[in-house]
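Handout for the seminar on molecular recognition.
Each group receives one record of this type.
Step one: identify the two inputs.
Step two: read the structure output and locate the region that could contact nicotinamide-adenine-dinucleotide.
Step three: write two sentences on what you found, then compare them with the reference statements printed after the record.
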Amino acid sequence: MTDTPQRIAVVGGGTMGRGIAQAALTAGREVVLCDVSEAVLDKARETIDGGLRRLVDKGRLEADAAEAALARLSVTTRMADLADATVIVEAAPESPELKEGIFRELDTVAPEAILASNTSSLSLTRLAEVTGRPERVVGMHFFNPVPVMPLVEVIRARQTADKVVETVEALARDLGKTPVRIGDSPGFAVNRILIPMINEAAFVVEEGVATAEAVDEAMRLGANHPIGPLALADMIGVDVVVAIMEVLQQGLDEAKYRPCPLLRRLVDEGHLGRKSGRGFYEYPPKGR
Ligand code: NAD
């Protein structure tokens, strides 16, 4: 039996929230998933059920364990239902106003909980400050798709207590992840390194140095990357890449973080990558 937190709440039942919930359920945790939308919660339960079934099909989870995991999930649209959670992971949209509002409310409804945010770019130090318990606010930055990706960047706000960092690291390990400690700085580590590389790849295409296909092939074969940077941009979302570059540019104030105009043009044209059917590459709808 572990002494890591047992009752986990997740705020936001979208792409990341449902993945985090699934990882916690398979690790034997009770999970309350909260979203403003009943429809999202229905879909989240369905996705988690599907994810657990796939684990059973692959022989990585017993059928009765999958059933028990799903039985430990409850969903709600009321923040008050998170009152007895020990750790709450917020995975709502990336808006400072929205997240600050959620943290203020969590501060009131769940007085004992550690409040973690899955933000990709916002300052944890600032978020901690809107609560009356800044020492118990921390970043847990999971990667998409959560059930597959092994990393959690543990982001320490200036105010975060050592014990809280240790607790969420232990929780991440129990969820089958590897926590890596990173300071509270724009883009943390992975996005600060990865996204400017994608931006540079776009400049290479924009300047006519190489085609997107050539850049991707070169980086796969020459740098041993499993996927080329521009195919990766299409997976992440070209709009998300531009948004992260803007965060780096504003937060670090260096010319090298200027978003590539080609990326902006793609966004203006609605070519956001896989999710819109076209980015650097075209993605025909399945079955066509
Ligand atoms: P998403 O849009 O898929 O899901 C967000 C969910 O939050 C939606 O279901 C929405 O209904 C819900 N929501 C909105 N307001 C809410 C509120 N007040 N209370 C409860 N729920 C509310 O977003 P996502 O892609 O899952 O991203 C969530 C967070 O994770 C963001 O901070 C994002 O930066 C971060 N993140 C995303 C990725 C990724 O690849 N998608 C990777 C790492 C981190």
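Reference statements: The chain has two domains: 7-183, 191-276. DSSP finds eleven helices and eight strands in the chain.
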